[in-house]
Amino acid sequence: MSNPWEAPSGLPAAPEATEPRSEWHRLHVRMLVVRPLNEGVTALAAVFFLLFTGDGEKWRIIASSATVAAILAFSYFVWRTTKYRITDERVELHTGLFTRKQLAVPRDRIRTVDLTSKPGHRIFGLSAVRIGTGQQDVPGSDGLTLDAVTQEEAERLRVLLLQKGVAPRPAAEPGEETSAEPVEVPRSEVISQLDLKWLKYAPLSLSGLVAIGALIGLLTNYADDFGLHPVQSLFEWLFEDPSVGVIGASAIGLVVAGLVLSVPIYVMQFWNYRLTREPDATLRVQRGLLTTRSVSVEEQRLRGVDIQEPLLVRAGKGAKAVAVTTGLGSKGESNLLLPPAPIEVAHQVTRDVLKVDDDPTTRTLRPHPFAALRRSLVRHVVPWVVIAAGLAVWAPSWAWPIPVAIIPFAALVGWDNYRSLGHALDDRYLITRNNSLVRSTVALQRTGIIGWRIRRSFFQRRSGLMTIGATTAAGAGVYHVTDVGEADGLLLADAAVPDLLRPFLAEKSTED
User: Fold this and answer.
1) Residues in domain YdbS-like PH (predicted)?
2) pLDDT at 512
3) Exposure check for the chain: N or C terminus, fewer CB within 10 A?
């Protein structure tokens, strides 16, 4: 009787299964200490609270020791069960104690390599390497992260993974991360780097006020856990016995503190900022004081640039530049090309990044119809009128004048929002500008547009307007031309990507 597993007569036998010729490696052993420093801050704070409160009861010492032991044990098991390797075809990562995860990224689909060193990493000379493919905009779902390896090895991996066709490192001893033949790091071209004169834009960015708001929210949550209710107490005080002097002084104090705090926040985020073009056709952004960050993205994945001008930064003639690219998405600051800086620097960076003589975002834009001004004023003014009316009926007498005083400023913002609207088209780019509080001027490659999204609300139809969005696989995914005339919007879409929208226009014309 023949063996049922033998190949049928006349057919070749199946080839033997072979493993890629590359050894598995572990993350650096120093992660046993770094992981608790980076991720166990809350638990360590609880340990210190237990140790240094009370009169040294035995249960506090036992609980503290058990917490520290649990943190270290968890770190050890994470390190012990995590391994990775780099083959000619892919990067693989296996991790997990109770639930094993096996991740693999084909090397020919790697689009970005992000190196991050938090304070704990920097103390021990380590760096986390995040490898992105540009598939999704959710961190951790479009690639994998090696957290962490030595900084030298991280830099070597960055060059290795972005240089196509470079062989992986040779085998190392099992369980150890060892260095290999160094990959030659070619010289790079500096496009832009930090100028201390840019610090004047830090207070205009209002990052200090955002940080204070986040801190107040955090403290409020902790206060609620201890039975305190500061928000409820504040509202009761405002409705029962408000003091205009105290309210005004508090508001001024918060604003001053926010302006002062903005400078160190800017320094921590953007110290040692440097934008370079690497010989391997990638753009690299490095920045950070306490937590250092290095993001590399292939130039062929760049689809455009977004010049963003927050209202106060724009008043100071400043802006920041953001890359419209696949592989980074639009969340967070991974796509940042230039921090708040003079507008001339933003245009220079745009020219150098896009390799053009004239920055497309500086082109004269076609204004939108007057009906768009009416819609903008309604959207910005009417809500404050409604709020003022509601406060006049249900709130103390001192409350309603506040939104009334805001109405003129809201009208100015609405008018400025209309002035910001515009669009243009050249041989390579669709240019669109929107918004007032953070004015955004986007130059999007016409070849990167994959579709159109047309929206006409009830009030837009009555005004002969529409909002047309250019969909793309990069950046935010869709970039809008807001409140444009119906005819202008359809002609713009048809001219930007010929034959994409034309069949639908022809069908409508036939029906009419």
Assistant:
1) 79-158, 418-487
2) 44
3) N
